[in-house]
Design goal:
By secondary structure, the chain is of the alpha/beta class. The chain is 50% helix and 11% strand. The chain is built from 13 helices and ten strands. A hairpin with a 7-residue loop joins strand 7 and strand 8. The structure holds iron/sulfur cluster and zinc ion (2 copies). One zinc ion (ZN) binds next to helix 13.
Amino acid sequence: MSKCRFCDKKAVVYLRYANLRLCKDHFVEFVEKRVKRTIEKYKLIRRGDKVLVAVSGGKDSVVLLDILRRLSEVYDFYIHGLTIDLGIHSYSPVYVEVARENYKRLGVEHTIIKVGEVYGFTVDDLAVRWRRVCSLCGTIKRYIINRFALENGFNSVATGHNLEDLLYQGLSSIISGDLEGLAKVSPKLDGRGRLITRIRPLAETREKDILLYAIFKNLKFVKMECPYARGARSLRLKHVLNLLEEESPSSKFAFSNSLYKKLSLMASSFVSKEKEKPRSCSICGMPSRGTVCSFCKIALKVNPNYKPNNLKLPL
Ligand code: SF4
Ligand code: ZN
Ligand code: ZN
């Protein structure tokens, strides 16, 4: 391969969508600048903010933590890591350890919540009752992350959703006519009431670039898959997006621009405000569509002694 566009070193990456050949160092800089640009463009973080970073140990969240750690010094905001031990045999111990190592290496304050200890059930317990647990597991993670952020005074929660994750969400919402889902395909979901703002600083960064960044920087991340993962549909749709990219290298970015700037905004103006307005769960007090929130419903089914313990950090 020829030389890097910005220095005399050998180029190790060719980015077709930007027509750039880059050495390792300039590629790392390129990815960091892209994330910084997304943060600025969508006003994701302000000076003095308290940002909770959800770290699952996968490449996306580890790269997010790495970049936000550096940017927190430049922009003067505080970050705190949160990892949820879901109690998945053979998988949770591995990713919790990886997350811990990353927090230690970067010197980031963090909390690890064991669902089993706090709420008396695990995702393994759910898998005994239900064949597919991913959507239940998603509910549990969103609930705990939001509740922790709320009870400990965070301004926002940062997650590692990358460009393809959001394009996939957008495409599948369009295919199924799910306007509510489409309204959520954005780098920033503003909070309201007891729902904390969610931000996705990697929303304009390709999955492949995130992986290369992690490899070039020697970051430790989990490579094994969760035993309950069933990603067939998402893999198929991501394949469709890759075919589009082969035809036209910048097509993913063109699609993300129209999703983030037009389609999701149009969809949110159609979603009934009444439907959007969350009530409070009669058991835990957190936002809920019905009298009891989805988390409490799940918890009560698997643990009759369930108590909605709070997650406030001891001072
Ligand atoms: Fe949870 Fe499914 Fe992800 Fe496993 S693959 S961590 S069960 S959402
Ligand atoms: Zn270079
Ligand atoms: Zn509840």
